Amino acid sequence: MSVNETLTTNNFTLNRQTYQRLKFALSIGLRRQIFFAVCDDLHIRNQIATRLHSSLAYPVGQVLYQSSETGGMSTPAYPRLVTLRLNLNDPNPIAQINQWLGNYPPPIVGETKDKPGRPLPIPAFQIVGIELLTKQSVSVQRLFLHYLRLSEQYFTNEETGSFLESTLLFWLPRPWLYNIQQSAPKFWQCRTGVFVFAGEPTPTVNNRNYSDNFSHLRSINLETETTQTAINQEIINNETLNHQNINNETINYESDISQEEINKTIAEFKFIEDDDFLEDSYENLTETEKEETAVQSFTNNQAIPKLSSLLHINHELVSLVQSSLNPNIHENAEENIQPRKILWKIEQLKTQTAPKEEIASAYHQLGNLYRSRIEEGQTSIDNLMVAIIAYQESVSHDDNAPHLPDTLNDLGTLYWMLHRTPGSSLEDSKTYIEQGIEFYGLAIKLITPENQPDIYARVQNNLATAYGDLTRYYNPLENWQKAVEAYNEAIRYRTEENDPLKYAACQNNLGTAYWHLGQYSDPIEHLQKAINAYKSALLYYQPDNEPVKYGMLKNNIGTAYWNLSQHEKPLENLQLAVNFYQEALKYRTPDNTPVACAATRNNLGTAYWHIANLPEVTKEIKQNFLELCIKTYQDTVSLASSLNSMQLTFDLLATYNNLGLAHYTLVTDPYFKGEKTALSQHLESALASHVQALSGLVNNPEAYQATFNHVVKVIRTFHNELGIQGQNLALSKVPSNLIPEILPKL
Question: What does the pLDDT read at residue 449?
């Protein structure tokens, strides 16, 4: 859960705990519950209410179900949580709930020729906008309290009513909590729980202009992220790995599983392509499509009504659309008019009691509009939420649309993107990725792979990527196994004959999944499978035409061989890793891919280091490979220091430490034959490298202490090899503030 950034750490923690308790209370689905959520900070209230709606509104795993026993019956989506804005003209929340249930009665599911169906459960309702009563007349405020008193009889006399089968959540500030306690005491006594959220009261003077937006969060553009956190459609993200050498000294090993320079993160994202989205000529459209297109030409002569006048559309959706409008352009600019036209068209269709298929089509068009904007890079949370709610509304009104698998796939991807946006709590991010997986799974159930192989392969690939992300939260072994299964299933229908490049990309993803799986079980088997998958992908990339991807795959194969060397044939597999890294560097150069080049150089230096430390190598080979390791690490830090540190996919401070260790090991080896001058130079380089690492580790006590110990060890060696003059030389090379701490340890 994200809360106002001005909150203290304690308030943030308390709010998160309170949110989890409230979310659990709503999710268990008990009937006849009345909860009060107290929050004086309107901004925080809006964020929390949005998260509740996003997490609980739709049953995700039960949105649709299709099985052979039911003859293809589909269960329509129906919300578990409905957000209602209190009607200030007639502030009767119970009447509003009954009106909503009258318009959207629970659908009957499970009906067959042999048995009757059953209605889906009544949803819970959260009521917002009570704080606005403060601005109303005294008579309106009293009317609201009067309605609460009237509703007391339903709870005290056990009378039946549709809304009583559900849970009610009232969002209100403290003054209104006190008013209800005093003026509707029996209603207050019927409460089940009170959840208090901390925050600064929203000043009343500013309330008139305060954005009452349920997702008022900062915009995030995934295109600005590094490839470590941004995933393109066919290539899984890279990971940075840390390993240790035989002396338990940290050696950083960057496994660039799919490093490539991505110019447009979502250029070919995980959405099912909708080639005719707002592009077909009007003459070629069906009647339903003409109805959709009419939204675009709603009227050129009549001003579009304000969004606040919409009465039949989920207020959260309206609020999010309002927030998504571009404030830097005129309100009647086409970019701002489009979504308002569609919303007003939906309002008209609902007012006219139009067929649900037409309403679903209009919602679907709204989702498509925002999906298109997201594909263009406008990946704000508001845009993501509008697309999600619009698509879910579309599915809830028509669960038999021919494009249903596409819509479910897109919902999966939108939730996947939502889990990737910064600012979400760990729990929320986990929930989003789980929801994405649910929607991908639902899409797969509706696809016949033999008839729709391309779509089926695409969704399976997406599902596998999502399972890979889920490993960050729990059950990595199980989820990587599921990722492998999904990638293999995608490859069954994404053949090299039909689409060789996508087939190759999927093979690369499969190799990555096997590589990860090898970190948890059967490493030899899984790493060999990873190598085979990477090599299969390599066949479809020509170095002259695709140098970046070709170099990426060479690097990946080198990484897999490096890991395999830890389990069998160390010298042979390390030499293979070196060969592939050297091949990769022919295409990952400082000019065309400097970040990737630095990463592969770092990998190559580490491979050299491990060869030098193998017990079976001769003294000459050890010295040669230590020198190669030093040269390669020097090239790495030289290139990396010219780059933005935020772009690097490996720990540069660890590389500095590794370079220092290599210098130190070279000259302390019994077979080192250099002169005193060379020995001194290597020790000075080792000391300089460790001091460089030390300067960046002040906020990492454990790593700082380990590096400090390296510094002390090098200074001792100066004394042992070069006497007191050597020690004084060494002490002159370290920052003066470290001297008091170093001297007692010499």
Answer: 92
Of 426, 421, 458, 424, whose CA–CA distance to 443 is shortest?
Answer: 458
Q: Which residues contact 274 (CB under 8 A, 6 or more apart)?
A: 368, 371, 403, 406
Q: Buried (b) or exposed (e) across 62-87, using 16+ Cβ within 10 A?
A: ebbeeeeeeeeebbbbbbbbbbbbbe
The better pLDDT of the pair 128, 27 is held by 128
The answer to whether 217 and 2 have CB atoms below 8 angstroms apart is: yes
Give the model's confidence band at 48: pLDDT under 50 very low, under 70 low, under 90 confident, else very high: confident
Say whether pTM exceeds 0.85.
Answer: no
With cut-offs at 50, 70 and 90, classify the pLDDT of residue 428. Answer: confident
Tokens of 55: 């997490």
Burial 717-727 (b: 16+ CB within 10 A, else e): bbbeebeeebb
**Which residues in 153-261 belong to E strands, given as ranges?**
167-172, 193-196, 239-244, 250-255
CATH number, span 9-206: 3.40.50.300
Helix axes 404-420, 381-397, angle to 10 degrees: 150
99-108's contacts with Cβ under 8 Å and 24+ in sequence apart are 100/125, 101/162, 101/163, 103/312, 104/78, 106/78, 107/75, 107/76, 107/78
Q: What is the pLDDT of residue 276?
A: 24
Residue 625: pLDDT over 70:
yes
Q: Where in the chain are the domains?
A: 9-206, 286-402
Beta bridge partners of 254: 240
The pLDDT value given to residue 160: 47
pLDDT above 70 covers a percentage of the chain that reads: 78
SS3 694: helix
The pLDDT value given to residue 513:
95
At a CB cut-off of 8 Å and minimum separation 6, what does 46 contact?
212, 213, 214, 215, 216
Residue 113 reports pLDDT greater than 70: yes
Closest by CA to 289, choosing from 365, 340, 367, is 365
